[in-house]
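Margin note from the TA: students keep mixing up input and output lines. Inputs are the sequences; the output is the structure of the whole complex. Example:
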Amino acid sequence: MAQQGAERVPILEARLVSKRFGNTIALNEATLICQPGSIHALVGENGAGKSTLIKIVAGVVTPDSGTIKIEGRESTIHSPADAARQGIVPVFQELSLFPDLTVAENIAISNPPRNRLGLVSRSELRRQTEKICAELGFEHLDPNALISEIPLAQRQLVEIAKALAHNPRLLILDEGTSALSVQDVDLVFQVIRRMRDQGRSVIFISHRMSEVKEIADTLTIFRDGQDVGSFPMGAVSNEEMVQLMIGRKLEQVFPPKPAVAEPRTPMLEVDNLSWEPALHNISLRVGKGEIVGLGGLDGQGQGELLFALFGVLRGVQGNVRVDGRDVRILSPAVATSDSIRMAFIPEDRKTEGLILPMSVGDNAVLAVIDRLLNQFGLVDRQKERDAVQKMVEQMQVKLSSERAPVRSLSGGNQQKVVMGKWLLTDAKIYLLHDPTRGIDVGTKQEIYQLMRQLADNGAAILFFSTELSELVGMCDRVLVLYEGRIFRELSGETINEEDIVSAALGLNAAVQH
Amino acid sequence: MSAIETRETAAPFRRFILRNFRLGIAFVITFVLLGITASLNERFFTPPVITSTANQSMTLVFAGMAQTSVVITGGIDLSVGPIISMSNSLASATFLEGDDGLNIILVVVLVLAVGALAGLINGLIVVYGRLQPIIVTLATSSVYSGIALFLRPRPGGYVPRIYGDLLTRRVGQLLPSDFFGAEPSGIMAFLNNFFDYIPASLIFLIIVLVVVWIPFRRSRLGMWVYAVGSNEGAAYMSGVNVRLAKVAAYVMGGLFAAIGGLFLTAQTLSGDATTGAVFTLQSIAIVVLGGTSLFGGSGGVAGTIAGAVALRLIPTILFFARVNPLQQPLWEGAVILLAVTAGASRIFTVRSRLDTMR
Amino acid sequence: MASNMETTRGFSLRRWFNGLERQDRSVLISYTMIILLIIFGTIFITPNFASPTFLTQQLRLASFLGIIAAGQMAVILTGNIDLSIPWTLNLSAVIATSIAAGENERLLLGVAAGLGIGLIVGLVNGIGVAYLRIPSMVLTLGVNAVLKGITVVYTGSAPQFQQTPDVLSRAATDVLFGFVSVAVLIWGLVSLVHYLVLSRSGLGRKTYAVGNNEIASYLSGVKTPRVLIMVFVMSGVLNALAGLLLAGNAGRSFNEMGEPFLLPAIAAVVVGGTSILGGSGKYLGTIAGVIIIRLLDGALNIVQVAPAAKDVTFGLVILAMLFLYGRGERVRE
């Protein structure tokens, strides 16, 4: 298939690269070979290993094993600056710009042009930036605008211009076009086609399949930390691609779903919830004992939806009813109060879910501390010990001591503490943001069991997962979000990986109901 | 993931206003105060009053510039006042009576070097000790106060008259009386008159700006200092020498504080190891009044100069308004409190409550 | 590595020390420092250094700083700072003494008014930080300036009203049974309550939680604004209390009486091992920090070194302590 490049030296050759983060294997002997003069798309589910590989190539992450060759020479990449010296420049989704500096200063930050006095030459800086922008067709970028003054889409163009100012031989765009308008995407595509025609290369990652199909000439599919196939673009159909992305999973055992019985009593009802520009007219119901999944690719508004329900966001419009009562949830303190009893497992357990330097016990009782007071208003040590004990036993947390800082636990056990904290509150509604991300298979099983158990005891669970199999295995219904709207609702038989993936990619735009 | 605040790309004028909004407020406040002062004191626009107002503001200006340099990186320098004291004490202890020539130059150079060294020590401890600026400079401020006291245990000391005159009088007074001709007329008369209005301290400030601040601000290092304050992580990712930039900011802080000390010396014509202390907190107030964000990344000397002048004018106005002198500190405090509270308006535009906590 | 070899030889002091939590290690270091200071003082300065009279005297003087530092510590634990100490203390003292007007019968009223001032200041600071999200450093700086103004306006030129009633003076200066100062008893009582609040109450737990990670606390349903307001109220009230005692100690209230306490209070908290970033530190350490600052001052007073050497030593000791504690923190980064 790809023989036409046989005599050429690949611009990047990453072979059998592996990387573990704690107990999680992010990359398992993955290989990526990128030919000069090609636009190479990487596709795969969230967490399939694309981003980790890219970070290794860009010098942000050090691999555990494997070899990397750049233009045939074996190489180690020590830092982002080192990668740039070797001709590899990434554009990441998280913007790495300086909001208080101008477009021109941002582009030239590491080595701005200087005049005879050794001072930064503003005229030269402006000229240089205008030249770069003109070459790229980004004329609408104003070199003297501050980053904080320009819209997100333009910031992404600045990011791309900043990367191209290094004159890379390999440009990496990791969701680097996610905020761009159609016109700007065209501009970027022209630029990278020109790069390709000059014999340079681009690695392209995007959640928009239409873009991938339009621009890429080679496609590598990732799954479970490995590359599962490389093809010239057009050699595989949509269906085959989706199949490869899903693959045959590790045997995962999900607790049986209850047979769909009589209509459930609604516990959480949401009508026309909006939070511009991220969420538009979201309406949903979660019944007692029901697990409703939120699907879709990263960043389609799922996280914002959970935050909005939990009272974190300001300016949320729409109506929310809990157990039939209209409620206005203006803060997490209200959400967790006795009359509402919500629980929230945030996306990042290390910064949002736990207080890492504090002990397991302190973390466990944080949400219920006011219920553990004695008649003097002090924390009753016995009640506290009992609560912590209950949590540790119920969640089967493995720890050396309840006084050990929660930071010292493994990822899975940390997540158990986050969940255990809410078990102690007797929550009736659970909002879960990817609760199994980055934890081992065993703990995942336990969390699935626990979720079903909570539901059987009457809790309503809204479950956002980036892992398809979880949505399929756990959910009574699945709502797939796309660009801030509920794109499709799946239930019963229609909850399968193919339908979720195609809905998540915005394919088959037939919206049911 | 997080809420993205974007402003539409604005027309140049609108953008200029938006970008310099806080700075503009600082200038409006300063000009309003200047106007009030002028209306209360009919002699305000006479050479002596202009000069004394400039002189009284000048140490505040330099203290504010010292603090600004550090605040741009997101740090804070509590040793600004003690470095001013130390410089004042050092100068008064090293001026030689009877030598009004080379000695003066040597003293100035020595004081500047010691100030920069003090800043360097602050910077090195903050960067390489990985300690918090507030507590590091709290500790070094004690050390620098001690050195000041060691150099000048009792107020006094000798400061050459000519040194004081050079910095604090009017340009017209410093020029030979027949500089523009014995009987100036026409343009010469205008110049003669004009220079009689110009405080020498203003010229001194301009020299400092041109020789020290502007080259720093316009250098790559200066750009890096702003970059580090704006987004330290991105600075590292972009190949900026973060450590160098931070240390440089503290060195600039020490240098400006030393310049402030030199000016204070010219103004008081003596040394006193405790006079500088008040400038630490005032410098922070000036930075805030001048519209510089305490979170770093933005701001500059223009706002700082305006802030310092505003802070200085408050007591003047209260004096001429015949406000009971006892009420002076209250009004001063009220203005400072108002200025810092104004900075809180951003809270009403934040859409995710988590963003106020990061 | 090296510690492995030591393990084989049984108990290793170093290993035990390194195994301690950072907070406990700091407390240990700070108390060791006190003992070293006393030994050093006895050998090199005066044999009287360890005498009960001297130590009683030092403890009494330490109690004023100790009460202030207790409040400051609570604020610092949340990652904030209270720079309004000097004039909160000053205004409270002035109001209290002038209401009491030198009469014991009116003292209660004066004390209530003085503490009330502290409460109000704390509320203003707390609300500004918690709801308006003004950085505490500049907010409390501004509040301090306003309080100064109010104090100066209030005192005007009539200092004769500010003689303290006899009872207040005795509370600040009396020594019972030759070694128990009343002021120290008050400090002890404050410390007991403070200790219970910080380590045993719900508020205390939330204070540490907010200081370590405000977002995670908020997302756990903790009313984080309330916590912030409470620590500033604690600081305000304790400053006011210290102001009353200081007035009693001097026999009168006077302007600028609070200025010398701001930096030592922060230094005491930090020297006691509390992280200026918030979230970590033990109240026992703060007590030690106060005593260290006081003994250092006392020692340098006896030898009558120039005030210059005092300031330099003071600064260097703080830096040295920071480096001693810093070892643990670097790992986190």
